[in-house]
Design brief:
mainly beta; Methylamine Dehydrogenase, Chain H; five-stranded antiparallel β-sheet; 40 strands; cytoplasm; WD40_PAC1; WD_repeat_multifunction; Anaphase-promoting complex subunit 4 WD40 domain-containing protein; WD repeat
């Protein structure tokens, strides 16, 4: 719909089925005068009125001898600054100054097919642009608490990981089909990790920090040497099926990854060798990991099942599904440090505890009212934290299967990270904030701002002094958390 302004005239006009013209008379006017042909009369339209005109009717003009169609592109342009004949008012309802350019628009009263009076709720909102300007200004005024920001990405950033041995080394991946290896505090030292043809959505360092892997929706994982910054090898899955996540073995150079092709894949990254495919899920494998002792693999899927695998034989030991378990796809899981239990979250708002030995559901954590987005288990306490789109982070006592505290947010929680072995846990949020919570009291200890959009991932540096957050605002930011050790 085209917006025309002439003095105080405010009209919305649009072709309607190539046969009609719609004219809106704003409440900014007391009335609007449309000259009928040959100046026989003046038609007065009241404010907040929509006129439906016959677009095929001829139009009289004071300029030239041709009769262009009513409200043609030329006359629409002229109507922005119309001129009227002597002693007559223009379409704006005012007598124009002498020498005004443009030509007048005249109609027959009979060409007005219908006049519709609008209620207040039907009227256009003239303040939309002002509201947008105010929002833009608010965005510009976001206070930046970050100690460092990395701006190498040119699109949304989805994943980040910190080296387990080098406290300043970070890897990030995003929608620009690239990964970056960069150092906290050094704008000059970074390495672009190229070679992908689609979003880099998952990244991770090996346990010794010598290798880093970037997994993409193009169905490939590129493995890089962190010392030489060279490509070690490319691991391939099914053609056209992207990887949702990847994990390194806790003590070796094995990589597992969950794919859209319903399988879990495993390679030896050091030798660039494919080892096994774990088949059994019937939908995308959305989450998974090695157990901390490295003996088993656990995977969750959009098919609402959890599977426990033997990595040597690729045989499935347990399938968890059905009554008492999730009714919708799994979104996340975490495994207790003793490798005895799995805590899984789902789109159905539920959190369940599963025994790895028996494959049985041994508990349910009830409290969330929307999809579970992240789960993290404390390395110090027998506690688990869960984050949800319902705007809460809940800290649970696993032994009692009870809520310790509920941490309220302004928007949905998208990611979390425990700060080493401390009592503090960080949450990333849709509102762009990173918050630090005291898990003992449930109190908010600190709020870090700086991002202008959703926080997608969090990672804690090896020395525990920094937390890295990445966002759909195309940036990665580093916040000082040394006071929370």
């Amino acid at each position: 719909m085209q917006l025309l302004m002439s003095g105080m005239l405010f009209m919305h006009m649009n072709r309607f089925m190539s046969s009609y013209v719609l004219v809106y008379v704003s409440e900014m006017l007391n009335s609007m005068h449309l000259f009928t042909r040959m100046f026989a009369s003046v038609y007065t339209a009241q404010p907040n009125t929509l006129l439906i005109l016959n677009a095929s009717a001829p139009q009289r003009s004071t300029v030239g001898s041709e009769d262009p169609p009513l409200f043609s592109p030329a006359t629409l342009a002229a109507a922005k600054t119309p001129a009227a004949p002597p002693a007559a008012m223009s379409i704006s309802g005012e007598v124009p100054d002498e020498g005004s350019d443009g030509e007048e628009v005249f109609i027959d009263e009979q060409d007005i097919i219908q006049e519709i009076h609008l209620d207040e709720e039907d009227l256009p909102d003239h303040d939309d642009d002002d509201d947008d300007d105010e929002e833009d200004q608010e965005m510009d005024e976001v206070e930046d608490h970050s100690a460092y920001a990395f701006h190498g990405h040119t699109d949304e950033v989805f994943a980040a990981a910190c080296s387990p041995i080098d406290a300043s080394l970070v890897v990030s991946g995003g929608k620009d089909d690239r990964g970056f290896l960069w150092r906290i505090g050094s704008a000059q030292e970074f390495q672009e990790l190229t070679g992908h043809g689609d979003t880099v959505c998952t990244v991770a360092f090996s346990s010794d920090g010598k290798l880093v892997a970037c997994g993409s929706m193009d169905g490939q994982i590129n493995v890089w040497n962190t010392a030489t910054r060279t490509l070690q090898g490319t691991l391939e899955g099914s053609s056209g099926s992207g990887f949702e996540w990847l994990r390194w073995h806790p003590r070796g150079n094995l990589i597992i990854a969950g794919s859209e092709d319903c399988n879990v894949w495993m390679w030896n990254a050091e030798h660039n060798a494919f080892l096994n495919t774990f088949a059994g899920h019937s939908s995308t494998v959305t989450c998974g990991d090695f157990t901390p002792d490295g003996k088993l693999i656990c995977s969750g899927s959009d098919d609402a099942t959890l599977r426990i695998w033997d990595p040597r034989s690729a045989q499935c030991r347990h399938v968890v599904r059905g009554h008492g378990y999730h009714t919708q796809g799994l979104t996340c899981l975490a495994i207790t440090p003793d490798s005895q239990s799995i805590v899984s979250g789902s789109e159905d708002n539920s959190v369940h505890i599963v025994s790895i030995n028996s494959g049985q559901v041994v508990g349910s954590l009830v409290g969330h009212t929307n999809s579970i987005e992240c789960i993290g288990i404390s390395s110090r306490y027998n506690w688990v934290a869960t984050g949800s789109i319902d705007r809460t982070l809940i800290i649970w006592d696993l032994a009692r299967q009870a809520i310790r505290s509920t941490c309220e947010h302004d928007e949905g929680v998208t990611c979390l990270a425990w700060l080493g072995s401390s009592r503090y846990v960080a949450s990333g949020c849709i509102d762009g904030m990173v918050r630090i919570w005291d898990s003992l009291s449930g109190d908010l200890a600190r709020t870090f701002s700086g991002h202008r959009d959703v926080v997608q991932s969090l990672a804690v540096s090896a020395d525990g002094n920094s937390i890295v957050s990445v966002s759909t605002d195309k940036s990665a930011r580093v916040f000082d958390i040394s006071m929370f050790k």
